[in-house]
Every structure is written in structure tokens, then in C-alpha cells.
Fold:
Amino acid sequence: MKRVFFILLALSLSCQQRACRDTSREVSTTQGKHLYEVHCASCHGSKGDGKGPIAEFLWPKPRDFTSGIFKYRRTRGAVPADLDLLQTMKLGIPGTSMPGWDLLSMEDWRSILSYLKSFNPRLANEKAGPSVDTPEEPKKTPESIQSGRELYEKSGCVACHGLQGKGDGPGAIVLKDVWGDRIAPRDLTRGPLKWGNTTRDIYRTLMIGIPGTPMPGYEHTFSKEQMWSLVHYLKSIQRPLPEGYDPSSPKRNLLPVTKINGEIPLDYEDEAWEKTSSIPVFLKHLWHEPEATEWLTIKALHNDKEIAFYIQWEDDRMNVDPNQSDAAAIQLPMDTITNPIELPYLGMGSASKKVNIWEWKAGSFKDFNAGGVGQLKPQDLMRQNVTGKGVYYQGSWHVIFRRTLRPAENEDAPIPQLGYASFALWDEDLPKHRGPETFSEWIVYELGN
Amino acid sequence: MIGARNVCGSSTVVVRLLAKQKVAGSTPVSRSKMKPIFYILSAILLVNCSRGTTPQLSPEAKQLAAPVALEEGKAAFIGQVVFQGTPPSPTPLQVASFPECSMAHPKGILSEDVLVKDDKVENVFVYVKEGLSGPFPVPQEPIVLDQKGCIYKPHVFGIQVGQTLTILNSDPMIHNIHSVIAEETLFNVAMPVQGQKLTQTFSKPQVMVTLKCDIHGWMRAYAGVLPHPFYGVTDEKGNFEIRNIPPGQYTIAAWHERFGEQLVKYVTLKPSEIKFVQITFSSIP
Structure:
């Protein structure tokens, strides 16, 4: 793992040292256009109008860059600052289909940004306003939480977010954004929140609201002390994030693949698995469903011959009927990736950058290849080589995928020492939409020695 | 009643003058500068001339005969907005899921988007669109918008760039006041406290800025933001008045939330003239 950490650390340090403002070197709109077309255009459209081929399967809808209007910012004024936009690209947006692209270098982000700006002259020509100040945070106390709770209950928050903060207030069902699309108030008990999950982020959102949405700003209503109390209360009702999980850390998606001797067990209760540490992965949704699973935990093992991924997620009810089964899938690039900019499109790759998909459904495992959305082809029965086991126990699915490290078939993805994988889940209890209910960003795995 | 020319050339109508209108877009002037005069009006009828409609002034308009006070050398538009045909009826708003709103209106609330009575259209924003050369001083007194019983008062209003808009919440529950131009949020502020007061200004002209409450989705108000104070909003009799305009040649526009915008071009105002303008909407675009 050390190598990956080093790469990511170097990336984040390079950003800090140059204060993320260096635009002089290697920022290329042509490179930005290329990356945009591979990774962004399916949703945001090749013209940047938010009408990409899969936009209709998404809710909330992808942003239309041609209007120059954005929800997320830490700044006032009509247009967001570069850093606001970079932050969105880097971290993605929880509760939506927008994944984070932390793996790219600062130059690559800047290149994409430079191309985004070509969609709307306002973005290129207008300047963002000043940043929203967040004063020093007082200590969180039972009193500050209680006073925050009182403010929450009497200041209109309940109208949309509901008494318990679950996003089910009386006004929740009628809300629309300025684009005329239905919009759901966030379930505040689930983190991380869309516009940042630190106390300062939440303070800022409460101050200025979220442009383009019904969420208003409270800076004309609350004093600084009241604002902080409300922040403390909101933090207190949020279910804690998995230990050590930092939604803004570039290290959030690093998966060590521990080496063991002997066969990799398919029993998740086996000592080999018990001894292995897991990483939490925060999932994205194509179509927002308040009940959808938002977390997956992953463990991985190898023994120089085989690799196995053990994924676990909560699901209230088991569905294994062949026609209506819960399911999970792992996606791996068909090419060995030496730089993250070579990664295929997260939504099943493309004609030029194909992917290998391992699926578990209705108790059985299948090996597919794909070269774009909907371009899914099962491998020949004789060449199926993914095995594993899925067990439902006490409200959770435990599924282990196992495959040989060096397959003979050229339809199978290589497993390099440093590689990339993404994960997707289907839950039969949720309303039907196209595609998986939830999916992960690209996860970086590294085989241990 | 004296003769006045109709732009369609079909007949001659004469009026003496009108009186109090709902909103007068005028710069405040001291009493001493005003002088009451009776004017002869030329009536411009903006009906669909091609249909050869004979211009008719409503009896109300004819009967209104009171002096209009003007600053010396300035002129005014007065007029009326009518609807030809059968306008859509106001519909009851679905407020049942908000008891605090429905309690304020035991008889229910009707939509305010189309208010037409005896063919006269209320809440039309009439303003000088072209021909003025500013700048014009920003009025000191604020425009007041109230949120009361889960509706905005007024529903349509004009305001000058830089002029203070005072927003009140007279209701005992939250409203968010969300101001948008097309898809862009200008401001969106929570007003959870009864009696809360907020001031805002607009920094550029826009006809119209929409103000809405996202929680009570029927709540809408429209602000005509102009670089000058020459506008009026029609009252329940469809009448408007724009006072103290410098003499000149202008394009007047009339905006209605459902009927769209109509233009009256090349209207000349002479010093001390009060010109009558009739505007007719006949369909919903």
C-alpha cells in the first residue's frame, strides 16, 4: 500500500504547496476535452447541456454547464470560484450520481475545468464573490446541542427536513429546484452531507443556503452563536460515519489486498477474513431513493494465485428469486492502467476502453465484458471463471468474489499489483430504475507482498 | 369629451381625465411643484388593429375625470388594460396540507395569476421600455412586500435598481423568499420569525424577477426591476398611470404573468401631455 499512499500524498501535497492556483503548467483544454468526453459527457452531454445519453436515468439531474449556474459554492456571487468547482469534481456529490475524481492530478482537474468554462462565457469571464466567512467555532456542549434543537424545531427546518431530520417534512413532497425538477430535502441523519460535512461546511450552507434549490440561507435570522448551536445539533443527529472515514480525503478509496498463504476461503466467517481489515466505501446513486444503501465495506485477499473481494452491505430483506434478485457486481478495466487518466468510463467503459464485470445474482456468479452503457456480453459458459459465495445473515449480505490472478483468457481483466475496481449493488425492494441502485467510485487496490 | 385620434384610424374618441391609480411610478415631488391641470388626451388603442376593432373607452375610464398632478414640463401615460375573449377563471389553490395557511383563508384561496373583471386586467406591469435616457435618482422610500396568509402583497410591483425592497413576514410560520431570474437564484433567505423584516436591493434591470416561497409552492410575486421610476401596475379596474415622464418618444411595454408582453411603439409625449393608452390582450401565449 505504501506506494499508493505516496502517490496520493504527493498529489495532495503538490496541491497544497502551490495553493492549488498554479495554472501555468500542463493545463490543456484539449486534454480537458478528452477527459470530459470519456468521463463526463455520458451524463452532462457532449455539449455540456446536462443532456447526455444516460441523463434520463438519473435523479437528481446532471448539471447543465451552459447555463453557468451551480449549486455548490463557498463563495457569494453569481458564479462559483474555481476552487468550488474543483471541489465538486474532486469529492463528488453525496446522494447523487456524481462521483469524485480524486485520482486525477491537479493539472488534469484544471484541464477539465478549463474545458468546462468553454461551455459558458460567464464562467470564464465573471469572478466569484468573496468567500463566506465562518467565525471560530465554540465548543460543542449539551447546552449548545439543546439550543440548536430548539432553533431547528421553531425556525422552519421541520417544514422540509421533518422533525427527526429525515427529510420527510410536510413540505418535502412539493419541492422543486429552479430547473423545475422535483428535489428531495436531505435526510440529515445520513452523512456525509452534499455540500461538505465538516462543521464549517454546514455553517456555510446554513448561512447562504444552496442556490438553485429551496434551501434558504439563515444569515439574516440567526446570530453566530445560534448558527453554531444549530450546526452542533445537526451533527448530533447525524449517524456517525464509519470510523476513520474522511469524505474529503483522497485516501478514502484505497483498498489493501492482503497476502495469505494457502487457499482463499469462501466462508466470510473464516479466520483469514476475520483478521483482514475492511474499508468503508460510500456509494453513489443513479436515482435517489431515500432507503438505498449508502455504504459498502470491502476486504480483499490474494495468495499469488487468486484474488478475492469480500463485500458486505446492509439490506432489510433478502431477495433471491432468479427474476427478482438482489445483486452485486465488480467492474475492472480490461487494460492495465498506469495513470488514472487512462481509466475507462465508470459506467461500463466504452468501445475503446472496455471493462470486465463480475456479477453475483440469485446465488450464482457470472463473468461479463462490456464496452459502454448497455453493451454487456456474458462470457462463454466454458470460460466463466469467477466463483464465490453469497450469504444473507442478520440484515446484511456477505458476498465473496474469487478469481485467478493470471487468467489464460484475454477476455478477463488483468490484476496488476496496483489496480482499479468499482462496485455496484441492486436491491430488489427499491422502486425499479435503470441500472444499479448504487455504485462506487473507482477504488484503488494494491496487492500486498 | 373631446376628440382624440385612434392609431388604427377607425374612430375618434375623446376623454377628459382619469384619476387615482393603484401605483404611480413617479419621483416624489413637493406639492408646490405640482399643478393640477385638465388635459386633452390622445387615445392610443393597442387592440388588434387588423381586426378593425372600434375603440371604446370603458364607462369607468370616461367617468374618471380628476386632475392629474404633474411636475412642470413633464408628461404622463394613463391607461387601461383589457382582455378580449374569455379569460381563464381563477382556480382554488391546494393549500390543505398547510393548515396554518388554510386557516388564514376560511373561504379558500384563489390563484392570482389571472385577475380579470369585466374585461379589465389587474396586475399588469406597464413600463417605459425604450426612449428614456437616465440616470434617474433612486427613490429613497422602500418598496414593501409582505407575506401574509401565505400570499404575497403586492403580487406584482415595480422597483428601481438600487431601491430598497423591504420584505416582511406577517405570518406565524416560515417562508423562504427565493428570488430568481429564469434559473438563477439571486437570493434565497429563510424568514422563520413572525414580524421578521429583510431588506434587499436588485443590482440590474430585469422584467421580471420572480419571488417565490418553495415551501408554499403557490406563492409567487413578480418584481419589474428598472433603471428608472416610470412604471405602473394595473388596479382591479385595469387602470394604470405613469407620471412625470420627460417629454419624448417612447416604447411602452405591458407585461402580464400569463398573457406575456405587449409593446406600444413610437408614442410621443409632449410637455404637459397626458396620453391615454389602451392595451388589449386577447389570448394566452
